[in-house]
Design brief:
single chain; mainly alpha; 82% helix
Length: 67
């Protein structure tokens, strides 16, 4: 059951971060620079690209600091 709960919260967290990124993009960049508004899946792809370019989430640091 622990694995399913973790997957549930991971999915919810990714969705919330994606929606926040989409809203910030649409509120800021489309008004300031005239960029097109983006949708949920475009925002999700931007989030994944950002993780790849910045080295991703350092999960091991979270677990080692908690010990």
């Amino acid at each position: 059951m622990h694995f399913l709960e973790m997957m549930f919260w991971l999915t919810i967290s990714l969705a919330v971060v994606t929606i926040i990124l989409m809203l910030f993009w649409n509120m800021t960049l489309s008004e300031l620079f005239g960029f097109k508004r983006i949708g949920f899946w475009q925002s999700f792809r931007l989030f994944i690209i950002g993780l790849i370019l910045t080295g991703g989430l350092n999960i091991s640091a979270i677990y080692t600091s908690a010990s």
